[in-house]
User: What shape does this take?
Amino acid sequence: MNNFYHATRILEGNGTLKEVGNEAKLLGATKVMVVTDDFLSKTPVFSTLTKSLEDAGLSYMVYTNVKPNPRSEDCDAATVVAREENVDLIVAFGGGSAMDQAKAVAALLTNGKTCRDWDNVPLDHPMLPTICIPTTSGTGSEVTFVSVITDTERQFKMSIFDPQKLIPALAICDAEVTLGLPKSLTAACGIDALTHAIEAYTSKVAQPITDSLALTAISLISQNILKAYEDGSNLEARQNMMIGSTIAGIAFINSNVGAVHAISETIGGWFDTPHGVGNSIFLPYVMEFNVSANVKKFADVAVALGVEVTPEMTKEDIAAAGVKKVAELNKQLNIPALKDLSYITPEHFDAIAERSAKNMLSDDNARDITKEDYLDILNKAYTAGRVISYV
Assistant: This one.
């Protein structure tokens, strides 16, 4: 039986950031907490956001203690501030970190307790109304009903998850916000979104609706990521990346991700590796491992990626070309190799493999995967660098 959830309204289009004030007012807001990071709070585009709130006659406060891979204690602290300020609506402005922290705060405000208390536990009450405004094209967090938070005590990424009570009321997807995004972020966030789409399509629990969304996202992202990377002011490419990322978010939250995310979450929770970087590094190696589980689907992925298919190519050939395409894309985007992360060494691999295998995301990976398989993937990524076996 398939079950598909989507209840977040999406306002998409260039210049839609200016609507945040009116939209917040329609949601009944009187006092808004804007959750963002310190850098973004000083940008001209952030002034567009605050001016919109002011023009709508709304009182607001800005909360900037947001770190990459948001921490549970920071979410708890932000909740205390929001409660003291009588906030009745949250606006998240940033990448996945800001949006995940904002969603956690919104959940804690209506459900009480601390972040850690809600790890993988259904919420008692719907989250406080929340508007998510992505400033990168990567996580899809603006349309997902999960908040991934680092439990620093356990060096573990926990999840607040509820498909009916952790739902952003509105996602404002304005590609103009992403103009000028640095190349490194364009690359890592873009491959993060591509990972969402590929893992969504090949997941053991994929369904017809998510399949359609995932293939569309793969196509949009693969056709536009290099354009956005090479020319940060290319608004058409930026808009397609934004749409692709959001579509991938809707797909993966309903069909789950797999081994790429299991490894990325492990090194993110342990070493604070940026999530998009972790996904980018391991995507081609996990794809290579997974191909045999569903050759047809990985051939479909290759076609969506733009692989040129000739009559003599078998499904296996096409699927292999898709893996090669992703590996080459990483190279073109200057994605770091595992060896470039000097703080992760082969001495860590056994523990990383064990934690990854225990991560519940491994359960829905396209192919059954064990600790030993993860060790093979880690060693291959470390020794081969950016080049996989048949590239």
In short: Strands lie at 9-12, 31-35, 59-63, 89-94, 130-134, 146-151, 156-161, 170-173. The chain has two domains: 9-178, 183-384.
